[in-house]
Amino acid sequence: MKIDPDSTVDLSAQIAKAIRDAIIAGDLIVDQRLPSEAELADHFDVSRPTVREALKRLAAQSLIRTQRGATGGAFVNRLRFEDAYAQQVTTSTLLLSMNAVSFDVACEARYALERACAPLSAARRTPDHLATMRAEIHRQGQPGLTDEAFCASDVTFHRALVDGAGNKVLSYQLAGAVEAMQPLMNMITFTARSREAIVALHTDIADAVEARDAAKIDATLVKLEAYTRELAHSVVTARAQKAAEKEHKTA
Amino acid sequence: MKIDPDSTVDLSAQIAKAIRDAIIAGDLIVDQRLPSEAELADHFDVSRPTVREALKRLAAQSLIRTQRGATGGAFVNRLRFEDAYAQQVTTSTLLLSMNAVSFDVACEARYALERACAPLSAARRTPDHLATMRAEIHRQGQPGLTDEAFCASDVTFHRALVDGAGNKVLSYQLAGAVEAMQPLMNMITFTARSREAIVALHTDIADAVEARDAAKIDATLVKLEAYTRELAHSVVTARAQKAAEKEHKTA
DNA sequence: ATACATTTTAATGTCTGACATTTAATCTGG
DNA sequence: CCAGATTAAATGTCAGACATTAAAATGTAT
Hints:
The structure is a homodimer. Chain A is mainly alpha-helical. Chain A folds into two domains: 11-76, Arc Repressor Mutant, subunit A (Orthogonal Bundle), CATH 1.10.10.10; 82-250, Up-down Bundle (Four Helix Bundle (Hemerythrin (Met), subunit A)). Chain A contains eleven helices and two strands; from the N terminus they run H-H-H-E-E-H-H-H-H-H-H-H-H. Chain A has helices spanning 11-25, 37-44, 48-60, 81-98, 103-124, 127-141, 147-163, 168-180, 182-186, 192-210, 214-250; strands spanning 64-67, 73-76. Chain A has a two-stranded antiparallel sheet with strand order 1-2. The first copy, chain A, is elongated and about 65 Å long. The mean pLDDT of chain A is 90. At the A-B interface, helix 1, helix 3, helix 4, helix 5 and helix 8 of A face helix 1, helix 3, helix 4, helix 5 and helix 8 of B. The structure holds a DNA duplex.
């Protein structure tokens, strides 16, 4: 592991890269302890604060964890799916909000991915997954539910569908897509009638999952996608109209 | 933005979280300059090194960039899909290697996601995407190609297929799945005969994409998945046999 | 007045050395 | 043999200094 002190790149970034590469290459294995900060500083011929900045970079990516005390130090972290979820969701959310990704594009991606799970979920879902879906459907029918709570329940429902596929990699990939859309979905005000329609489609999906009918799940997801986009469009239209009225009033 | 100095959590982690939350909430917008390190240190009532560790954490997630000089400082970064790709691939690769995700599970996820793109790609692919696919097929037929180069070309081919769907979110999500599998794929030694079979299937896919025949793409991807898994199994079997022989020799 | 060279300045990058805090291992007395 | 005190080693934090960078301000000559 070496760095170039003459490079224009930050030393801490170079050190972080060197250690990261060693982890990816398998030279440092899970739970292995890195040398102490002082030893690393000595090795790379830099000061301790510089080493610490490098370690914090790695910690931000969940590649290492640190422990204080006598037998403490920095350890290579076993990257867990649960840890990766959070980062994936954060990144996806920011990508959507910063890159003016249209609702349609995000929606299309989400349902395309979800439909990819449909046949697997039909084959493998357990009673647990089904119970979660039914419970969320029931919650979604409760009057007095806020839009945010309705959306959160929607996310849980869809994650149960995805988790039913029994493939951790798929669940991980989809967590980003589904949850990242939540802020966009929260912009939609769900009327009693639209909630009723969504709950009906959710019920169809749950029934199809119970019957292990992949084609039916797929078809219903297509319907749900179309309806979601329709709702979003009406929101956009209403907002534009409101803005126009306001404009008219000021003029 | 406040932190709790009595918490057991690192101050730098708390500060990073506070700033990250502000970015996510939109309180800090793209290209906006953060206060200088000295000002942040003053605001949070900590020392400059502590602030710097926090900023390095954010930089590791591409949430900010720093610039030196008179008008320098830390700026909120516009998170680009390209920047996110790299992190996504690193994370996915480590998840697969550290969590003993079986080849079958990863393979299943990859092809499920890819098949989700098939109908969109059939509808939207441009001549460019098609040209890339044809070029990679040609490369894959060249004799003397290393296994690594063959795999790299395979990745490029599949990414062209995915990019053909014309949905950035899908491309982003899939980049992780496809590229993360490359290390696993590199373990497979491709015989002349297996390469021939793969190239034939790739050609079928390219033909179907050209004809905008979604069903045909889907069907061929199913075949390719089955063949890939078959190849992987034979590799595993061969390796187990070799290990058994070695065991026998030592005994 | 303008173009170019120089100086200033404000910021990040880095270093040194110190102290605080945490935690496990070790020592010590009952 | 065990419980408490001590020690040691590591990370966490701080203070202050200097190095480096790059833009802006200033000065100067044409």
